[in-house]
Every structure is written in C-alpha cells, then in structure tokens.
Design goal:
Layout (H helix, E strand, L loop, with lengths): L3 E4 L3 H12 L4 E4 L11 E4 L1 H9 L3 H7 L5 E5 L6 E6 L3 H6 L4 E4 H15 L4 E2 L4 E6 L4 E5 L4 E4 L1 E4 L6 H7 L5 E13 L12 E6 L2 E8 L4 E9 L11 E2 L2 H7 L5 H8 L7 E7 L7 E2 L2 E3 L14 H18 L3 H30 L3 H7 L1 H13 L9
Parallel strand pairs: 1-2, 1-11, 2-7, 4-13, 11-19
Antiparallel strand pairs: 3-6, 4-5, 8-9, 9-10, 12-15, 12-17, 13-14, 14-15, 16-17, 18-19
Helix pairs in contact: 1-5, 1-9, 2-9, 9-10
The structure holds flavin-adenine dinucleotide (FAD).
Flavin-adenine dinucleotide binds next to helix 1, strand 3 and helix 9.
Length: 390
C-alpha cells in the first residue's frame, strides 16, 4: 500500500502519523528541519485534545509529562482580586472524560516522536522541505528542495502557519498584523515568591494587555505569555525572536505585583516574542488527494489555547476517514466536512476572545458576559473526536 505523505513533523503531523499507523496505514513524515524538536514554551492541552491522545495510547506518557492544575483563576490586573476561581484537579476526567494538562511543548513533541518511531522507526525524514506537489488519478508526488521525490496515495499538509501546501492548493494567504505581540518565557520556580502562586494557573485580562501563567515540568518551571497591543514594536511571526525583560516590563508597568514578580524573575536570555497575525477561515482545504491539517488549514489566534488541540482533533478524524472510506478523495472530502464548522468557530471565537481578554475586565465580569463565555468554552472542550460518527 502506498503511504500517506505527511508534510511537517509538528504536533499535528505527528499525531496524524500516529493515528494512521495505529490503523495499519503506512506513512512518510517529511520535516524541513534537520533536527526534531519544539520550542521551549508551555502548552495547554484541554480535555478535547487529551481524550484523543489517550485514545492513541498516550495516557501514561501524558500522566508522566503533564501537570494537572489544582485550580485555575482570573485576577484583576490592578487590584489582584480573584475574579473567578475553578477547582480542577481530578474532577476533569469525570466532567470531560479526560484531564487537562499543562505541558512543556518539547515534552509533548518528544512523546509523539517516540510513539511514531516505536511503530515505524524510519517513517520520519528530516531535512525534507516541500517545494511542490504533483497529483494525478492514481497518486500524489511530493517534491522536496533536496531533489528527493516521494510518491504516496494522499498528501496531508501539516506544515504550519506558513504552509507551502496551503499556498499550492488555495494560493497565497493574506495575514493581517493584529498589532498584538505575545512575549513568552519559562521561569525557574525557585526564582518566584511562593505566596504569589495561587491559583495554580492564572490569567489577568486588562485594557490592551493580557497575562497568562501556569506551571510545567512537575511545577519546576512557570510558563508565561504576556500579550500587549504594541503595533509599532515589530511584526515577525516566529517563535524564535528574542525579546528583553525590559521590553515586557515596560508593557506591564502599573500592573499588580504578582504579574511584576513573574516578569522580574525572567532569566535575561530566556525571553521571546511572537507577532500575532490573523487569517480568515478557508472555504475549502482539500483538492483531490491533497488536504491540510492544523495551522495550515485553520490558523487561529492563541486566545482560546485551542490551536494544537484542533490539529490533534483533525488528525484522528482524518485517520478514521481514510480507514473508513473506499477512495482517498472521498475520505478527504468527508474529513474536511467533519472539521470545517468546529474549526471555523474556534478561529472566529479566538479572535473574539482576544478582543475580550485585551479589554477592561470590570464590565465583562460585572455584566455576567465573562461567565457566559466561559460556559461556552467549557461546552466546546467537551468533545471527543475519536468517537464522533464518521
Ligand atoms: C503564543 C501562542 C500560544 C499558544 N498556546 C497554545 C495552547 O496553549 N494550546 C494549544 O492547543 N495551542 C496553542 N497555540 C497554537 C499551537 O502552537 C499551534 O496551533 C500548533 O502548534 C499547530 O500545530 P501544527 O502541527 O499545525 O503546526 P506546527 O507546530 O507549526 O508544525 C509545522 C511543522 O511543519 C514544518 N514545515 C513547515 N514548512 C515545511 C515544508 N515546506 N516542508 C516540510 N516541513 C515543513 C515545520 O518545521 C514544523 O515542524 C499557541 C500559539 C501561540 C502563537
């Protein structure tokens, strides 16, 4: 059987590879970088993502590498008052069928690489940057910058926000610079005063600023992302651009002491920034034997923390469609139709959530709007892509 070609060994591509291999469908995963890995940052895996990863046999690996928050809260950016606190702990498996984890992205990535290689040791090709695609009635050929060509029965573009596959399928996209910069860092926990660490995970919405922090790696590191409206700062869409502690500090001057304490504890060489760009949902993302998955299909702003989760849901639905349907084009069409509405909602709601998180929390929390939105987001997280009808 010709393999399914997966372009990109990010969280989405690896999950797709694992889901296909578990069904006995061979894969080739082509990754442009010469080495595997992900950036040093935290990631929230909501129950709708962990339920899929558990269905793929990763329950123990997640338990080993993930942190389950005792509680989650919202504090006021100026007074530090707790606006909302939710007990989490072990209650999530009862409520959602799976827990929520905070993870180091590199740990999650390694878990997926190990699981793929355990089933297919040579499936991942490094140093293979896709530059072209050629499809006909019987198959599809991926053309790489190093001169290699690989033939498969389907090609899945999991090549992220700057997807070459998407450009080939539907043309160049039109990202809009939002004017919002996300600063991120991982702070060793011993650099932080213990009395500022409640709730376990906490967000601070505020006018033009938004601060999120949660622990990873067994509570040894505190991950934070600090969002600031800063249209003139610079606009590069990359995880690897360095920033300075002084830049973050300046953006959050006047914010309550718990936020200042986390920023002050940042190691000087461990601060990065990412310029947020927004893109509209695509009308379609499959043509014949080629489709898109994850950020390549539906890039979204990070204000719901659902980007990787949507890629993980895509992966299992795609594998289930390829297993169930008799032809590849029919399977890809079915996959797209099953994923479009939910991912479109996530894209648009992430945009809206950003608008809310970057505004004055007082009217939102006093009017009940914030509580209503929270209920909607909870409902969205109660979803098991591994068992929806195909
Ligand atoms: C500040 C911020 C915080 C976030 N927090 C969360 C969170 O808490 N929870 C969550 O679920 N999501 C979060 N996200 C979103 C999440 O990071 C992405 O949605 C997710 O990583 C997408 O996975 P992917 O596999 O589609 O793409 P990627 O992880 O970007 O992987 C793409 C892969 O394709 C490779 N590639 C690219 N081009 C080519 C090519 N031409 N040929 C071969 N390989 C190629 C790349 O090298 C890379 O390995 C956040 C995003 C941001 C910006």
């Amino acid at each position: 059987m010709d393999p399914v070609l997966i372009v990109g060994a990010g969280l989405g591509g690896l999950t797709a590879a694992l889901a296909l291999l578990r069904r006995g469908i061979p894969v080739v995963v082509a990754e442009q970088t010469p080495e595997l890995g992900d950036v040093g940052a935290g990631i929230t895996m909501w129950p709708n993502a962990t339920v899929v990863l558990e269905a793929l046999g990763l329950r123990e690996a997640l338990e080993r590498n993930g942190d389950v928050p005792a509680d989650m809260g919202v504090r006021h950016f100026r007074t530090g008052d707790v606006l909302r606190r939710t007990v989490v702990g072990s209650t999530l498996r009862e409520r959602y069928g799976a827990p929520q984890y905070f993870m180091h992205r590199a740990d999650l990535h390694r878990v997926l690489v190990d699981a793929v290689r355990a089933l297919a040791p040579n499936a991942i090709l490094l140093g293979h940057a896709l530059i072209g695609i050629d499809q006909d009635a019987s198959g599809v050929t991926a053309i790489f910058a190093n001169g290699v060509r690989v033939r498969g029965r389907a090609l899945v573009g999991c090549d992220g926000i700057h997807s070459v596959t998407r450009a080939t399928l539907v043309g160049a996209d039109q990202p809009r610079w939002t004017g919002v910069v996300a600063y991120r860092s991982l702070v060793p926990i011993e650099r932080l005063p213990q009395d500022i660490l409640t709730p376990t995970s906490c967000i601070w919405p505020g006018p033009g600023r938004y601060f999120v922090r949660y622990p990873v790696r067994g509570g040894t590191l505190m991950n934070y992302v600090a969002f600031a409206v800063a249209p003139d700062a610079w606009s590069e869409e990359s995880w690897r651009t360095r920033s300075t502690v002084a830049e973050v500090k300046a953006q959050f001057s006047g914010w309550e002491p718990r936020v200042q304490a986390v920023i002050d504890a940042t190691l000087p060489d461990a601060c990065f920034k990412w310029a947020l760009h927004d893109r509209d949902p695509l009308d379609r993302w499959s043509v014949g034997r080629v489709t898109l998955l994850g950020d390549a299909a539906h890039p979204m702003l990070p204000f719901m923390g659902q980007g990787a989760a949507m890629a993980i849901e895509d992966a299992i639905v795609l594998a289930r469609c390829l297993e169930a349907m008799s032809t590849v084009p029919a399977a890809l069409e079915r996959y797209e139709s099953l994923r479009k509405e939910r991912t479109r909602w996530a894209q648009l709601e992430s945009r809206e959530n950003g608008r809310r998180e970057l505004s004055d929390p007082d009217p939102l929390y006093q009017s009940g709007e914030a509580q209503e939105v929270n209920r909607e987001l909870e409902a969205f997280r109660r979803y098991d892509a591994s068992s929806i009808p195909i």
